[in-house]
Structure formats: structure tokens, C-alpha cells
Design a protein that fits this description.
183 residues; mainly alpha; AhpD-like; 9 helices; 61% helix; globular
């Protein structure tokens, strides 16, 4: 990593429960959390936003949320994000099939029409040479209500923030998921 993490005892006391929870949930404190934690208010804002986007009562199904986060992570070359989000996708989908086929999703039959539309939208937002067209938005409105489109857009924007942050700082995978190699 280009920026080092500090020893845990150098972070504010109020961040340590977050790190303890990561240790309990993942078996390790997550490197990105330690990097965001170097600026505690920034860590708190990012953690709050993530919590809202990945809540149980989200109108977006868990598998769909994970598909989008993995795909955005792949596009942004975030090894850490692909690793941890692929693990989450595999758990939510009860299989590695979607993880293994996601980089080439347009040619795969395993994805539903709804998932394909969300992935198309994620790519339109994420790739710098694409844009969200009126036609794409109209197709989204046939499947999702306006509030859900806003939430999906927020999730994609958040994952772009997160994966670009981690990629820029060269945060490595932490070994959560055996995943396909980069194409």
C-alpha cells in the first residue's frame, strides 16, 4: 500500500469498536478501514453511508447489490474490493457461479434481465467513455421505481468512491475469496 496503516492503539477510541466488529466478522481488521480511519470524521461518514446502502431493508436485493459492487470493483481494478465483494456475492448467491462469470456478464445466461439492466447501468456510470442515456433510464423505470433508481445510483457511486480510493492507494486483497484472475 502507498500509505501505511497505524497501530490500532493510535486510532481514536471511538473507532476501535468498528475495528473490533471487522475482526469478528471477517477475521481481520480491513485495511481500507484503517486507511479511512486516519481521518476519523471521513471514516465515520463513509461507514454511515455504507450502512445505509447495504441495509437489510434496501429495495435492492442482496445479490443484485453484490453484483453491482463486484462489477464496479472489477472496472476500477480494486483488488481489495473484488476480493471482499466477491466473497459477499458468493455467500448471497450460494455459489461462485455469478462471481466467476461476472466479468463477461453480457455473454452469460446465468444473470436475470433485472441483473443485466443493473449491470448495464453500473457500467454506464463507471466507464468514462459511456453515459446514462434517456433510453437506458426509460428501461430502468420499467423495472425499478424512482426511489430504487436513486438508491441503485447511490450504491454505484459509493462503490466507485470506495474502489477508486482503494485502487489509488494500492490496497491489496486480503484473501477473502478465491476469485477469477483479471481479464
Amino acid at each position: 500500500m502507498y500509505i501505511s496503516v497505524k497501530p490500532l492503539n493510535k486510532y481514536p477510541f471511538w473507532l476501535r469498536p468498528f475495528f473490533w466488529n471487522q475482526q469478528r466478522k471477517y477475521g481481520a481488521v480491513l485495511d481500507p478501514g484503517l486507511l479511512w480511519g486516519r481521518v476519523p470524521k471521513l471514516f465515520a461518514a463513509v461507514a454511515l453511508l455504507y450502512g445505509v446502502l447495504d441495509r437489510k431493508r434496501s429495495p435492492l436485493e442482496p445479490v443484485l447489490r453484490s453484483l453491482v459492487t463486484v462489477r464496479v470493483s472489477q472496472i476500477n481494478w480494486c483488488d481489495f474490493c473484488v476480493d471482499i465483494n466477491s466473497m459477499t456475492l458468493a455467500k448471497r448467491a450460494d455459489s461462485m457461479d455469478k462471481v466467476e462469470q461476472l466479468a463477461d456478464w453480457q455473454k452469460q445466461d446465468i444473470f436475470s434481465d433485472k441483473e443485466r439492466l443493473a449491470l448495464e447501468y453500473a457500467e454506464a456510470i463507471t466507464y468514462s467513455d459511456q453515459q446514462v442515456t434517456e433510453e437506458l433510464m426509460q428501461r430502468l423505470k420499467l423495472i425499478f421505481d424512482d426511489d430504487t433508481i436513486v438508491e441503485l445510483t447511490g450504491l454505484i457511486a459509493f462503490q466507485n468512491l470506495s474502489s477508486k480510493f482503494n485502487s489509488a492507494l494500492d490496497v491489496p486483497a486480503q484473501g477473502f475469496c478465491a476469485r477469477p484472475e483479471r481479464q
